[in-house]
Automatic annotation (TrEMBL), chains A, B, C:
<keyword id="KW-0784">Thiamine biosynthesis</keyword>
<comment type="similarity">
    <text>Belongs to the Thz kinase family.</text>
</comment>
<feature type="binding site">
    <location>
        <position position="209"/>
    </location>
    <ligand>
        <name>substrate</name>
    </ligand>
</feature>
<feature type="binding site">
    <location>
        <position position="55"/>
    </location>
    <ligand>
        <name>substrate</name>
    </ligand>
</feature>
<comment type="function">
    <text>Catalyzes the phosphorylation of the hydroxyl group of 4-methyl-5-beta-hydroxyethylthiazole (THZ).</text>
</comment>
<feature type="binding site">
    <location>
        <position position="182"/>
    </location>
    <ligand>
        <name>ATP</name>
    </ligand>
</feature>
<keyword id="KW-0460">Magnesium</keyword>
<keyword id="KW-0808">Transferase</keyword>
<keyword id="KW-0067">ATP-binding</keyword>
<dbReference type="InterPro" id="IPR000417">
    <property type="entry name" value="Hyethyz_kinase"/>
</dbReference>
<keyword id="KW-0479">Metal-binding</keyword>
<dbReference type="InterPro" id="IPR029056">
    <property type="entry name" value="Ribokinase-like"/>
</dbReference>
<protein>
    <recommendedName>
        <fullName>Hydroxyethylthiazole kinase</fullName>
        <ecNumber>2.7.1.50</ecNumber>
    </recommendedName>
</protein>
<keyword id="KW-0418">Kinase</keyword>
<feature type="binding site">
    <location>
        <position position="130"/>
    </location>
    <ligand>
        <name>ATP</name>
    </ligand>
</feature>
<comment type="pathway">
    <text>Cofactor biosynthesis; thiamine diphosphate biosynthesis; 4-methyl-5-(2-phosphoethyl)-thiazole from 5-(2-hydroxyethyl)-4-methylthiazole: step 1/1.</text>
</comment>
<dbReference type="Pfam" id="PF02110">
    <property type="entry name" value="HK"/>
</dbReference>
Length: 277, 277, 277
């Protein structure tokens, strides 16, 4: 039995505040293996929120660093053979060291090489998976959990997050990962329990890397997290709330980025707690 | 017989408006294979203007994606052996599928490896070529169409667009590509007919990637274009006009980028048509 | 005998002004081989200050370009085997041509592969080395000049620049390079003489690439420099002063970048000289 959309509870601000406070104390070191397009924005996002990013990519180095780091992000956006080998080495080392790792299945379902690569990674037990509606449906489909195709338009989703909610819950149950399917409303689920994160702004779909950077922030929140469902949901919430704040002083996608990073830098647990009452 | 500079007509606003309206309806999916420096800015430029960028780079994936995409950009700015193989696979697949592709010959004429690579690509019939004066002269020279060398200073041009106009017209006639040679005034030619685009601002030469991003926008306008000359010229014009607008609220190259992307996002066909009367 | 911290003289504004004036006249062509994260910001930084950046990375091209360029930057932030081969070819060609090159030892001391790679590069006589406290200590340790470890947290320093000052002086004396160890105060030394650069703002540690871009600016100032110690120190000073100016119109790390680049673009020797009197 899965929850239906209208019964999904909204993530409480008190949880967001607690999780953010934990991250700010931990200042987690995040090992980022992401695509060529978003590395700078991802690093600035992690720095702004209070984490410490490091992009280490060589097969000679990733095992050593995945052990040192507090969390690992794997994003297949511009994956190629050599980088995929390094990612698999990093995942194995992270698992051996107990370092949680996040899978961002960019454009999975569109291209067979990365779809197969991501399907194989699911067996390596990611702590979390963050994707748009099309990507989550494609992953669930690759595990024969659903028969919806709904491949994206390149890296963009053609399916709403709501239409992928059941697939997200099934994917979480089948893999043991927390699954975050993001869109107008984000849903974060462990298969049994699900949170809704209804904030954010549509302009974020016109700024490259907001989803990819969110996946890195998910990794940062997962570092030493006592409750992984809450950690992943808080990551989605903080990014969405910062996005809403940034739009208050933006005229479009270009002027969005700078105040978005500033908003991540100043967002404060005490302020978030004041929203709860 | 080629036109002399003073007889080149300015691209009418009505054409820019029509082409932009077509792009906004099409929301073309652009397969971007570009250099390591400008990927983020290129993606944000395409998103701002209303296209859908996807950077797919693996030799295992590019053929599949070049078939799905509406247009392909090949930019040799940071080309190396493995990426060049992938580019050639992508070009072959694009040609087989009828997907138009654009060549941006960054620093061709400066370095022999990329000059030979770009020369070879000309035989694969790009739909368009977009370069600065030095690059267009170097390509024409590589085909023995002219004997001017004028190699750039690294990636920057040492030759004006006007000095490369004849070479651009000869290159277009010899290759069948629309050639855009950009500079203080951009010239866009099919060898027989040529448009001038006199807008823009010199500060854009101090912002990395404005030329590279323009080449991606050229690809976006070429998707399903009934008139390729007008499509390429409109791409140059929209970028130049957005650049002028951005300078109205910028203090220098740093503060240029954000309002430039905003300007691309809001520029509207109706407004452009009002300039024509 | 090395200087103690309290006796290190502050770099005079007259030297900064002279060096900046020289750079603006030279407009040096800088061959940049840097990490995947900071390429765009590095290029924009060099363009803003008045240099001409070119990222050339293929083993087939780097020797040719290192000969054409006025200076070369080697940054090992995201080094991997193929890129390391290309870097070594570029360094050899730069040395053969008399082109000065700069080593930025990102995260050296944290990971053994890059530590060994950077240690080997020291024998190839860089003109300058720019790193944070942890990185400079790690390099000195790799040459058995000191026995402090103090490995960084990923790419971030855990050691102050002051604590690495003696190691910087020893590293300079042992390698013949100008060594810049940067932090709250930057120290620039040739082993015998040392300058202090006390400006800048802590927010720069929350913006990815400020250190990496500084290393590129160091390369730009080193081009044809009659006094390499002054050239490297002036590079650190110009970046720090621009950082202070940017903070006057910034709210956080996001809004820092644009005015920082603008400040680099407008900073003027005449103005700097007026500070000296």
């Amino acid at each position: 039995m899965t929850q239906t959309t209208h019964t999904i509870p909204e993530l409480p601000f008190s949880i967001i505040a607690d999780e953010l406070e934990r991250l700010r104390v931990n200042t987690p070191l995040v090992h980022v293996m992401t695509n060529e397009v978003v590395q700078c924005f991802t690093a600035n996002t992690l720095l702004a929120i209070g984490a410490s990013p490091a992009m280490v990519v060589a097969r000679e180095e990733v095992a050593e660093f995945a052990t040192i780091a507090d969390a690992l992000l794997i994003n297949v956006g511009t994956v190629y053979a050599e980088r995929l080998v390094a990612m698999q080495i990093a995942i194995d080392a992270a698992n051996a060291a107990g370092t949680p790792w996040v899978l961002d299945p960019v454009a999975v379902g569109v291209l067979s090489y990365r779809t197969e690569a991501a399907r194989a990674m699911l067996a390596q037990r990611p702590a979390a998976i963050r994707g748009n509606g099309s990507e989550i449906l494609a992953l669930a489909n690759a595990l024969n959990l659903c028969d919806v195709t709904g491949a994206g338009k390149g890296v963009d989703s053609t399916m709403s997050s709501t239409s992928a909610l059941t697939a997200a819950q099934q994917l979480a149950a089948a893999t043991g990962a927390i699954v975050a399917v993001t869109g107008a409303t984000d849903y974060i689920t462990d298969g049994a329990q699900t949170w809704a994160v209804p904030w954010g702004h549509a302009i974020m779909t016109r700024v490259v890397g907001t989803g990819c950077a969110l996946s890195a922030v998910v990794a940062a929140f997962l570092a030493d997290a006592p409750n992984r469902l809450n950690a992943v949901a808080a990551a989605c919430a903080v990014m969405a709330i910062a996005g809403e704040r940034a739009m208050e002083c933006s005229d479009g996608p270009g002027t969005f980025v700078a105040p978005f990073l500033d908003a991540l830098h100043v967002i404060h647990p005490t302020q978030l707690r004041s929203y709860s009452v």
